[in-house]
Structures are given as structure tokens and as C-alpha cells.
Structures
1.
Amino acid sequence: MLDAPLPHELKTALLGAGLLVHENDWSDYGQGFPLELESPDGLSLSLSLDWAALFSRFDEGQIGGAVIKDTGEVTQSWGLARRVPALAKGQNIFESPVGLLAESVFRGFPSHLLLNGVRLLGAGLPAHDPTHLLVLVVEAAEEYDAWRKASLSERKADALKRIGKALNMNQTQQSLAVAATHSIASAAELAAVMLWTYNEEQNALELAANVGANRQGLQFFGHLPLGEHPKCLADLVATERKPIVLAQAEDSPLTAEIEAKICYLPPGGVVVHPLIVGDNLLGVIEYVGRADDTAFAETVDLYQTISEHLALALHSAHLFEATERLARHDPLTGIANHRAMQDFLAAKVTESNRNKSPLGVLMIDVDHFRKFNEEEGHDAGDEVLRLVARTLRDQVRTYDLAARYGGEEFTVILPDLDQRRTEEAADRLRDAISKLQYVNAAGQTRQITASFGVANYPANGNTPSLVLKAADLALYEAKRNGRNCVATATQALPKPPELRPFDLSPLKGLVPAEALAECALELETYRRDLVALKLLEVCGTDGIDALARAFTLMLLLPEKTPEWTLDLPHDWSVALNLARALVHAGPSSRDYLRAGATVWNYRQGSESGFLDPEFLSILASQPEAA
């Protein structure tokens, strides 16, 4: 703007050239482009140049511009800018993505934005007019296409990375299905993902996991029998074993109504893939895009890649479960095998200890099975074992375990049952088995019965092996009582050994009374720690006393062995040898526990107990101490 009035002749000449001169009012730039000029003598002149004249040599399809007020209103728009809806004259840019660019410019930071194939560059106008900004618009279709492809590639790479991690971390089909659907829905930003596994016995699809489907969808898609008349895309794809791609859900009568009702978010495109490895159908997965996802159609190849990897992962999970089942289930009867029973019992014993709850154990033997095998043949014997196993499996609770112990013997583990309820469960199972009948090839009916032994943890045994042994002894009692009956273990848990008071009198008069009193306090803590290490059961009270004597001497011995040790009783002299060796090794007070455990496991010849290499070497050099 001029600091002095513009000469009339110059103003007339500029107006004649089609230029608008701004002298006092900057509120409106008319129809032109604002341009500020400054002369060498410091005078400034602001003109409004005609858009057409300014960019007359450019194609309007390649360049354009707009002037925007600080209120967000577009006051002028020319050329390519008119093709940008947000820059149409009269529009408010703060209601569009261009608003972020405008905010940056009004704060004094020139900015740019790539939007739908055009590049927008924003800058402020003359410093004394902070109320307007200029946006230059240039064609950037190639740049936008490259950016879009790069974004899609990044999206695909991120999705495959996250999904691959989920596939590698899960070995079972159910956990794999849940992890995969959640990872796919999150990584690909989908409205819904549904994964079915194929049930060959029922020739049906079972919905294993889903994300984005409501309760109505779960009811509709939960079980899909495969037949001649598919009711949705999933069973159609499973039947034809070919993928289906729809640009919009309403493009197919099988999805037009269903997906719109079962998805929490408005659905867009739909892709459904069969999950096949070789000639085996493993399942079907359906990807439902969001209605506002314009890139869904461009990521169809991503869903094909995901489906291929998912099919291989499901196949591996199926093989893993089959192998695991063979390892933990009896191949003849289909129920848990001996190994699985031992693991289950050990876990339930630990749980029983933690919850202070009882645990029932049944040992079962099919009566006269050897004779039956000899008379009817081994095939008939196998059938009887299957009948008994099926009866046990169907009669117990879902959290109980029926297992084949070996031969014609079975075991049932019953958590949370005391003796009375365990006996009731045993009699109920015995009655169910007694109703079984086997009809041989000659049409003769053979009655099937079984004998039961009942035991409870911890009343009849404080370890898994002891309670099983108690149930086994009760089983033999039932067989001696005539078979087809229940006998209960009568063996009570043996009373654990108790620590007796420790005698320090042999040391009285040899060491100061104060030192002996302090040693007695340390000694009680040490003996309790030995009991916690289960050494009382291993070596008894005599062994604990021997260790305590060595511990006492380690606490009381100075650097040089005193002469009074020559007057010690024999049992204290033996302990002295070990004490000397341990003091020479310089262990800390906590190491005495490791020493104690090592010494007694070494004496017992145990290979499974605690054996510290350092103390083993000491024992090897001090055989009289051991």
C-alpha cells in the first residue's frame, strides 16, 4: 500500500491496463491475484492482477489458485482450484482437510498438502494484511498415484508382519483362529472378519472366531451345513472351493441383506476365500471392508496372500493337535492315556494343596476280562474296552478325567470330591457299566461288570503316586470281595516325622554361653529351612541332627580349629570334618542349605534331588564326612 497518494496519471494508467490498485482497503481483492511491489526508494504498491492474465500461458487443468479469508471463506478461485470442491468460491475450507493447511499458514508457517491428485501450496499475503492467504494448486496425479501405491504397500507389509506373528505364536486351531481374526481386522482396518473351520464328520462349517459381527450374526453364521442351497457366501465358497470378490456387499443377494445386518460397522466390499491345503478343505474366511475404505478393492491380493498363509498355519495346527492327541490319548478307546492321567493328577494335587480341597481317585478293573478275551477273541475284548471307556467318559463331569491306566484297568480323577461323594460317584459308574451288554457272533449276550477302588487325597496319600497306590490296593480288596463292587482305601496318611529338641549340651563349657545362645537361635531357623527342603522325609530326624551339628560347628569355629574339638563326642567329631571342609570353602549362611541338601541326597544315592557341584567336590575330598 502506498505511503503517499498515488499520482492520478499513474493510477489511471494502471486501471487502463486492467490492474486494481489498493490504497487504503485490503478487505477485498476483487477478482484478481494480490501482488505487492516495492520501489528502490522504499515505496510499496499493491495491485490486483487478473488471474487469467497471470496464468494465461498455463493449462487451467494443471495450475490454479485461490484466496482465502481468515474466517475460512474462499473469496477467489481460478483454474485447477475450481476442481477442488473445498476451494470452490464461497466454501469454508475449515470444514475440509485444507483447513489444516490454512491454520498452519495463518500461524506463519507456509505449508503444502497432497490431496486427491493435486498439490496445494499455501502462503501468506503481504505482512500488513494477515487476514488472507493464497493457495496455489498444481496438478500432481503421478505424485498422488505414487504416494497411494507406497501407502498401500506399507499397509500390506504391516498387515503381513502383524498377521505372520500371530500365526507363528499359536499352535492350536482355536487359539490360531482367534489370534488371526483379531490381527487381520486390526491390521487391514476391516469392518468384520469371520473364520470358519470345516467339520468333516458333519460336512459343515463351524464359526471358529470373528471380529465385528453382532449376536445376530453369530447365530446365523455359527453352524453352516454344506448342501445344494447355500444361504451365504461362506458355504457357497466352501462348496465350489473358489474365492468370491464383491466391490460392494449389496452386489450379491447372498450378502446384500446379511452383511448389512450382522456387522457393527457399515460394510463395503467383501472378499471370501476357501482355506485349502492340497485337496483338503480346512475352512473359509470372509473379509468385510468398511464402507468408507476406498482402498479395499486395491488390497484384494493382500487377502489372497493372507488366506494362503492362514491355510498353511491351520494345517500345521491340525497336525499338531492330531499328534498331541495321539501322545495323550489311548488309540483304542479314545480317552486319556496313562501319561495324560499322571500329568492331570499331578496338576490337580497341586491345585488341591493350593485350595485346601479334596480330590477323589478311582481305580477300575473290568471283571474276568482275560477269560472273556480267551472265549470271545481279542476283537471282542477291544470292543468291551471301548464300551467301558465310552461309559466312563460320558458319565463323569467335564472337568473330571477318565483315562485308560493300562490293559483292562481304568482311572478316573474327580477334583473337589470328598470320600463320601467319591464313593457315590464310583457306585454310579459301576451301575452304569453293569448295564452294558455284549452280543457275540452267535447271538449270545455277555454281561459286563467292573470292580472299583476308591481313594482320596490327601487322606489316603500325600503324593500322586501314594494316592494311586491306595486306590489300587482298594481295587484288589473289591476283587477279593466278589467283584462288581466298590471298596474304599482304609490306609491313613502316615504321620510325618517331627523335629525333636536339639541338644547343645556337649558344647557347654567349651564356648562362651552368649555365643552358644546366639547359635541356638540361628540353629532353629536352619532346621526349619531343612524341613522346608523336604529333607526330614529323606534323612529323618537323625540326619537333621547330624546336619545341625555341622552347622553349629561352622558358626562357632574360629579361623584356627581350637583344641577343645579333640574332646567332642564321636557324632560331633564326624560333623566336624564336614564343618571344616565347608568353612574352608567359605560358603555364606544360605549356602549351608545347599550343602545340607547335597550331603543327604549324596548319601542316599539320589540323582533327582538337589546336588550342588561345589559341595559334591568337597564331599569327594572328605569321604569320612559323607
2.
Amino acid sequence: MPIYLFLGYTENIQTMRTPFIALLLFTYILANAQGADRGMKAATTPTQVVRVALVIGNGAYTDSPLRNPTNDATAIAAELRACGFDVTLLTNANQQQMETAAATFGNKIRNNQGVGLFYYAGHGMQVQGENYLIPIGANITVEGDVKYKAMNVGQLLAQMEAAHNKMNIVVLDACRNNPYARSFRSAAQGLAQTNAPTGSFVAYATAPGSVAADGTGSNGLYTQELLKAMRTPGLGLEQVFKQVRANVLQTSARKQVPWENSSIVGDFYFRGGSGAAAGTAPTAAATAPATAAAPTAADIDAWFRKGREFNKEKNYTEAIVWYRKAADQGYARAQSDLGDMYYKGQGVPKDYTQAVAWYRKAADQGDEYAQCVLGDMYYNGKGVAQDFAQAAVWYRKAADQGLDFQHYAQAVLGSMYYNGKGVAQDFAQAVVWSRKATEERYGQPEAENNLGTMYLNGHGVPQDYAQALAWYRKAAGKGYAAAQYNLGLMYFKGQGVPQDYAQALALYRKAAAQGNEDAKAALKRLGAE
């Protein structure tokens, strides 16, 4: 009967490794919970003009899903908040949610003498010269369904005009291919040109009648360039979109031409410049430069902790916004948590490639948790090509830090040296790393089990059944199924203890109850299931 060797990484990668991120994240939150309420405040902007935004990103369509709209909307919402906007963010919204949010938005901007901004990323289409934004779950089978099952852009513009505020901005990154084109009579592509009502600025990701690609990165090309331009202090509204157009033209080899339609008469700046939002004479305070102050370390930490609060409340959409704000400032723990969100698909579509990208940013700054998870990603080939050598590199970085997760990394390194994965097989090194992983209060049961196996087989240490039993008992006492099975096997064979079938069966049953396949097979052979 075979001895259950080590962690079972080759045959049991899923059962052994999948719970890792959730478990360590919970430990990590507890380890960093002290002072969670320090410096908790929202980012502010010096401008006194009321700024209100509605941001929608739809990507999870049953037919023709889109990769980037939720990422785009989340990033835009975070940037608008940094620019002083009161933002409502919706992702993957149905028709009722979109229409309710639009009505609330209209009420917010009505008579506030400020700025209203609407941003949409997702599928949009034109039907008989009218533009429509497509909700998630819209059951559209023929062209006539669109006006009843989608949001009419013209009606939204009319609602914004009726609010009588100083300026309205509409940004439509919605010029993707029409997913229903085959069943429609007309073959019109993209969105139709819309006349901007007085005091309005309407921007399209590409020229009327043209389509834009969804993009292959974490953001679509148009929104990627828009974010860069919005972050430039002192750029007026028209200059922001001119810069976007120039960069999109260059990057797309002139295949995508952003377009704007404007009837504004005043000035507007996302960051810096005059605070005036319309053609009326600005006050002395408004004409003073309003360059946004660089966030302090306390601000960034507060954004991160706000993300943690929303995450704890399972409001993942808002958690993503605040994590990204902190992560964009280079805050490693926020980058690491963003990696977790992409790994689990919380608030964003599950995306291992994006998870790896965020973990790497944090790991490069020395974040031990991210280094451990990045090791896992390379070990299991998630989001990157499977590469045991790279896995070993990242585990070693975490193992050498002497922080919360070093013992996990040490245990895995011990297993890798034992099995010769990513490193030359070396039983002596396997013993060294496994012993490190069993030290102090973080003693890893898998490492204890591994040491038991090495003493049992005389690998890297003299064969010693008493030591094997001691290590197996430690791990089995912590509920580690493999150790329970191995300990049962020693009782079954009488290795280091008097042969005791009853004790062996009891241990097999404990291991089998946790899903250990070797224990299940042993019970089946003995007719003791």
C-alpha cells in the first residue's frame, strides 16, 4: 500500500491549492486590521462647482460579451471621484436599473448650477437615426424591439438639458459592432451623429457610423487615453478630448477616430484651471488655479481601507473603485487585493491574467502575500504559462522575508525540493525548508506531514519511525487529512507502534471524511466503507 507523499501537488493541485487565496486573504485582513479607521476620509477637490456623474459599464452580454466595459467604467468612476464628482457607478445593469439610475441622475443635476456627466461603455447601436444603449439581459430579436428594451440616448440628453444646470458632458464608448446586425433590416454600424443640446458636450469613441474595438488590455483604447488626459492638470475640456483623439489615432494607425459634438460656451477642467463651468463670469475664487493636491499617504491608506470596508460588505463594485484609487498610487496592499478581486471575479469578470498583473505590481514592491500567490499562479499555470522555476523564485522571495506568509512559502519550497520541481531534487534542502515551515506559531501541517514522510523513508534524514510518528501526529492533530492517512498506515503496518487495525481504521475514516482519496481506497479494500 503506497505512502501518501507530501502535498499531492501533481495529482491534487486543485484540491490542495484552490482554497489558498481565500484563506490567506482572511488571515491577511486580520493581521492588518489594527488602525483600520485611521485617516478615513474621501478625496476632495478644491473646486466649489457641484459635479455629478452617472457611470455605466455593461459587458456581460449573453450574445457578444465584451471584455472591457466594466473595467472602463470602474476606472472612470474612480478618476471622476478624484476630480470631485459625486459618482453613481453601475456595472452589468439591466434596463430597469439603467432607467432608474438615469432618473435619479436627472434629479440630482436639476437646478444645481453645476456639471452633469454621463459615461457609458458597452454595446450601443443606432436604429432609424436614433442611438440606443443596450442593457444586460435585453431580449432583442428584431429591430423594433430596440426602442422598447434599450436606453434612448436622445431622451437622456433631453433630460439633461431640462435640468438647466450649467454644463452637461456625455461620453459614449459604445461604438462596438451591433450584436444583432444579422436580424436587423438596416446595416447601420456604430452610433448616429447627435446634435448636442445647448450647454452640452457629447463625445464618441469613434466617428459616427464607425465601430471601435473592445480592446485587448484592461481598458479599451479610447477610455485608456481618456483616463490619461483627465489626469493632466490644466487641460480644458476640449483639449482633453483633442489629446484623446490624437493618441487614439496614433495608436490605432488611424483606424479609430474619436468624435465630439459641442455647444458649450464656458470652460471646464477635470483637474486644475478655472472652476467655472459655463459662460457666466467666474468668481474670483473660481478663477484661481484649482490644481488638485497630490494625495497624502494618509489619503491613500484611507482609500485602501474604504475598499476593504466595501469588500467586507460584499459591495464589490465600490470596493474595486477604492482599491484602484489606492493601487494607482502604487499602494501595494491595494494592488494585491485587486489581484484577489480579479482572481475571484468579484466586482469584475474573473480574469487570471489581470490578477497576475496586479499581484506582480505588489510583489515587485515586496508584498509577501502577493509573492506567495504569484508563486501559486506560476505553479498552477493560472494567468501565466506554468513555470515551476518561476514559482520557486517567488516562493523563495516570500520565504526569506520572515513575515506572515513565510511559513506557507517555506512549506511549498520544501515540497518542491523533495520532488525536484523548479529546483534540483535535494532531500537535505527539503528537510531544511520543511523545518523552517514548522517553527513558531505558524507551523504548517503540510510541512509537518512532509517531515514525517522524510523520516519514514530516510530521505534527507536517518530513517526514524518515532520521528515520523511524532510529525504525523502533529499534522493529524491539526486536521490535516494526508497526515491522518499516513498515521493510520503506520498503525496498520505496525511501523514504530504496535499493529492496531482499529486505530488505523479510525484514522482512515477521519481522512476519508475530508475527501482523501487514498483513505477512501484503503477503506474500500478493507470492506470498511
3.
Amino acid sequence: MGIKVQKDMLYECLIQIQEQFGGDTIEQATQKASLSNNPGENAKTKVLSQRFLRHNIKLIKEELDEPNKNIGTKKSAGSGSKKNV
């Protein structure tokens, strides 16, 4: 396998999440629900709508056919580099 690309996709989604909280009193259960910022493992989710926004495909890996091929590992002193004269 020589070349690999990665496809990144961006969607906009509207998701409904339902989760139940318990406690000894209504106040305790309500406080647990209020302090929860992320859905738990037992939360039920339902995707109500989704909209595709865009995608991007980019090169992530390229394997060389010849392992000893010089790929320019030496740095050259260009116009933007500082060099002692």
C-alpha cells in the first residue's frame, strides 16, 4: 500500500438525549440531573435531524518504493535563515 488519504466530514446534528436520575428525595434526583453535563452510559439518544456541511480529503501517508531514496533530510540555508558569517 503506497498512499493513504483521510476524509474528514462535518455534519450538523440535532440529537435528543433522555436520561433518568434517581435519589432518596426529589431534590437529590433533581440535583444529580442538574449537575450532569455529559450523558451517561445508560442515556438514550435519538438523532432528530442531520445536515451534511462539507468534507475534506487530505494526504496523510506516503510510503516510498525505494527505502534508500533521499527525501531531502539536509537543511539548506535559505534567505530566511540566520547564518554566522
4.
Amino acid sequence: MRLFTQVHPNPKTVQIRVLELRLHPENTPLKIRLRRYLKSIGPNASILAGMWPLLLIILLGTALRFFHLGAQSLWYDEAFSLASADRLSLGQLLTNQGGDIHPPLYYLLLRVWIRVIGINDFTTRMISLWAGVLTIPLIYVTGRKLFDHPTGLWAALFFAVFPFHIYFAQEARMYTLLTLLTILSLWLFLQAIEGGRPLVWAAYWLCLVFGVYTHYFFAFVILVYYLYLILNWRKYRHLWLSMIITGGLLIPVFLTQAVIVLQKFATVLAPSYWLGRPHPLAFFTTLYFFVVSYTVPIWLNPIGLFILLAILVVGLYEQLRMRGRDSYLSHRLLLVLGAFLPIVIVLIISQFKPIFLERTLISCTPFLVLLLADRVRTSRWHSPIPYLSLVLAIVVVISLYRYYFDPTTRKPPLREAAQQVAASFRPEDMVLHTSVGSFLPFLFYEPPSEHYLLWGDPDPHLPASAYEAFGGRIVSREIIDGQRRLWLVVMLDHSTEYQLDQVRWFDDRCELTEGEDVSGIFIRLYNCTGD
């Protein structure tokens, strides 16, 4: 019986053929008929059939990233992104007058986005969300290129559901864009070293430029590529001229940011910078957080950490046992370098001057996800890896549930605090903040249009000029002279003693007429005239 026509998958010749299938419903099961049909299509049948699982994985990852996207308030880091993109001029943004330590590409994209779409808790995070979604098919095609189709599917599934990536896909920061550029650069790097044409090398170079202009730690990704070629110099010695040209062309592009980089590193190296020295187990806990994020119950963390490390160690042992040392001079060596080397380098530097923060190393995660997918895909049922992976999957589900539904894992409810002030605000009122943690997000919520930051924090995040550039006003306590009603917003996120001192100072000089505690954000209304 003639059913339909089919385009033959042979890329050299396109021909139309008619599939003649003789169906015998009474004795031919549907499964056998489907197998015959896939066989008739040709060698690409398994890949074509595998696109349905990939599509479902992409839909799952998209749904998890959209779910509760605008449910949580903007917090300081996200408000800083908005302030940089919205309140600074283009010249101020390119010269980093906002005082950030990151390059400007993400802020430029966010600037264009909010000019078109507007600002609210939902739409502001859409760049991060779509960058996270696009990474899912990219990590699939990279996994398929490195290994095979099933490994690509496993990698896509892991990336789609790992809470760490969902968390940052719902945050208005540059980290998912950095991840997207990392996996794109990896795919282009593989294309280039396998005989890529000049157009591929040009796309690879452009991706590196975007990566460096997104986060300076992208330089570690570039270092991984060069180190991999050095370790395989006999195999790839014919590519060194291309790699040298590619790296050399990065230098003039980066020179525009060189002075700013030196200035910002001077800020990071200052004794007052807020990062502390990492703990001895930071290497292992970082790998763990890359998978399960920060929302796992404390009592479960040791178990989850042990499970993840066991998967990695057992997987390494099984790989070496099955295929020998030479297998790790293959592309798996590239994944090992990308997953672990940047963490090691930053940890070593941080022993002298702390610069370590897990999220800044998010570019390691595509390499780690591909390694885990390879281990799960190639392990046998007599191996402990499938059972360890099942336990780790339970930890991931618990983390996801707590991220979405447990109020103790949520960001500070600054939106609700701003609404609390707006509900009773009068035009003559003043809103004064003791912490930049509440001051900056309040700029993007309900009226009043002007907010005041009480200056005097012994450990300020940024100089006063940066906050003034964002449209805020820096004041001292003496501003209360002649002020009848004053709202004091206290968020004890840092410099706790300093902030409590300010509360006591206002309590002594003004009459407290109203006080609210919005989940740790204290709102106090004073009458400072004595009436």
C-alpha cells in the first residue's frame, strides 16, 4: 500500500522515492513496522528518531527556567545590572563608571533589551533565560561531536535540569551568557582543529572576543584550548600558526579594556575587598554546587558531595581500565582540563589574594556536564555509576523543589518591602537606606522616585560616586533636620553593627511611629520633628 513520498537522506543526490510498505495488521506489530520504516530511511534513522527526546529535553529545560521566573524580587546584583544598563550613559558604561569589575557586553545587551521591553522582575531576566535555553541544544551537538548521539542527549538533559543553571537562568546577570559562549567556543574549537575553514576560525575568534567581553575569567577557557594543543602537539602541530594568529588578533581588541582591567584588579586586590580566602574543600564543593546549586538541605550536602565525587573517581578508573591511558589524551583530556583547571588556578591565586567565587567559574560547567554524560553513557549496569547517578538525581530533585517552593531559599523580598513603603508613603516623606543591598533594588520599584543612601558604611561595596551615577543620593544623618516623616530601611546583609548603630541613633532622636519586619528587611517610620 502506497503511503507517502520521502526525500532520500543521501546529501550528494536528492531523489524522490516511494515507500512501498505492505502492512498486515493481523500479524505485524506496530513496533516491527516502525523498525522497518526507520531502517528504510537510511543510516541517519537513529539520529532522526533521537530528535524527539532532544526536543522534549529542550521543552523541559525551557519550562523549568520560565517557572516562577518573576516570583522573586530583584536583589543587589540584579539591581546593579539594571542600574548599569539603564542609568549610565553609553560612554559611562563602556568606561565602567559604575564601578563594576566585569566587562560591558552583557550590560550592553541588557540596555537594548530593556529599552525595547521595559523593566520588571520577569522581562529583565529574559536574556539570561534564553541564553540558558540555547545552551541545551548546543551542549547536545557538542556531546554528539565528542562522543555520540546518546551522550549528547545525556549532556542536554543534565544541563536542562541541574539547579545551578536554572538558578542563574533566572537571574539578571552575565553568567548564563558566559556559559553559552563557552560551549559555543568549545564546539567551534573542535570544528577548527578538525580542519575548519577560515570562516570557522573567524567565528571561533569572534566567540572568544564576546567571551572575554562578557567575563574576564573566560581567559581561562582560552588557556584550556592552548594547553590542550600543547599536550597534543604532535597531532595538532600544523594548527599552531592558526592558533597564534587567532590569539594575536585578540590582543588589539582587548586593549580597549586593558586599562579598566588593571584598575578593577587593583580594586579586587585591595584589602577591603569583600571576598575571603576559600576553605580547603572548596575545589570539591565547587564541583558539587555546579550540579545541585545552593538549595540542598545542609544535612544532605555531605551525602551528595560523596556521590558526585564517587561518580567522577569511579568513572576515571573505569575509563583508564577499559581503554588505557591513551584515552585521556583524546578529547576527554580537553574536558578534564576545562572542568578542573580554572578552579585550581583561581584557588591557588586565592591563597595569596582571594578572588574565588563559584559563580565566576561557571564556564567550567559545560566541560563537567559533558564528562558526567560520558561516564553515565558508557557505564555498564554492573558498574556502581548508574546507581550513584540515581541517588544524585534524587538530590537534584530535592534541590529544585526547595528552590521553587521553600521560602528559606528565596532572595530577599525587596519588592514586598518597597510595596510596604509605597502603601503609606506621602509626597513629603523621605526614604533612607542604611545598606546598598536595599538602596539599589528600591530604585526600580514603587515610588518615591528618589531614595537616599546613608553614607558611612565602614566597608562600602563601591565609592559614593558610583551610586550617584545610578541616580541615587548620598546623605549623612544630619539630613533629618526639618524632616517630619522619615522611612528608614534596614537590611542586615553586611556591616551589621554599623547599621544597628544607625537604628539606635534614629531611635534616640526621632519618634518611632511604625515598624515592620518583611522577612528580615526592617522598615521603620519616624517622626523627626517632635510634633
